[in-house]
C-alpha cells in the first residue's frame, strides 16, 4: 500500500495534467494582443459559435475608440488537447470598417496563445480607391489572467 501511493500519485498527476491541458484552448475569456488590444469572448455554444467584444488599442483615424462587438466560430472537438481553428468578425462601432480575423489556438509551454491574421476593410467613397481599402496583418493574443 505504501509503495502503491507514489504510483497513484504519479497517475493522478499525469491524468490531472492531461485534464488541465484539455481545458486549455477554450477561447472563452479575456485576451490581450501584441498591440495592447483587449478582447473578451463571452460564450461558445455547442456548435462553436461565439460572441464577444473587442477594444482596439489602435485605429486608422484619430477617433475615440469604442468597445465593438465580435461574432465568430471555432471548430469543436472531444479530442483532448484540441487546438482549434477559429474566425471572427469585428463590427467597429466607431468607424465604417470591418475586420475579419482567422487563427488557431495553441498551448505553448502550458500557456494558451492565439495566432491570428486579419483583414481590415476600410470604407472608401469611390471605386477607384478600392485598391487601398484593405489592410492585412498579424496579431498574437495571450490570455489575461
Ligand atoms: C478602424 O480603425 O477603422 C477600426 C479599428 C481597427 C483596429 C485594427 S483591426 C486589426 C488590428 N488589430 C488590432 O487589435 N487593432 C487593429
TrEMBL record:
Pfam families: Avidin (PF01382). It is found in: Secreted. Its main location: secreted. Keywords: Biotin, Disulfide bond, Glycoprotein, Secreted, Signal. The keyword Chaperone does not apply. Residues 1-22 form the signal peptide. GO terms for molecular function: biotin binding. Disulfide bonds join 25-105. Homotetramer. This is Avidin. It comes from Sinosuthora webbiana. The gene is Avd_5.
Amino acid at each position: 500500500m505504501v509503495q502503491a501511493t507514489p504510483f497513484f500519485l504519479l497517475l493522478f498527476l499525469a491524468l490531472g495534467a492531461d485534464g488541465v491541458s484539455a481545458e486549455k484552448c477554450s477561447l472563452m475569456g479575456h485576451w490581450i494582443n501584441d498591440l495592447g488590444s483587449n478582447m473578451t469572448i463571452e460564450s461558445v455554444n455547442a456548435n462553436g459559435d461565439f460572441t464577444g467584444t473587442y477594444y482596439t488599442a489602435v485605429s486608422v483615424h484619430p477617433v475615440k475608440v469604442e468597445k465593438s462587438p465580435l461574432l465568430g466560430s471555432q471548430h469543436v472537438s472531444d479530442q483532448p488537447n484540441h487546438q482549434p481553428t477559429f474566425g471572427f468578425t469585428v463590427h467597429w462601432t466607431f468607424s465604417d470598417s470591418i475586420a475579419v480575423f482567422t487563427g488557431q489556438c495553441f498551448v505553448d509551454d502550458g500557456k494558451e496563445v492565439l495566432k491570428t491574421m486579419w483583414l481590415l476593410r476600410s470604407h472608401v467613397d469611390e471605386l477607384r480607391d478600392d485598391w487601398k481599402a484593405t489592410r492585412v496583418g498579424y496579431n498574437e493574443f495571450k490570455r489575461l489572467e
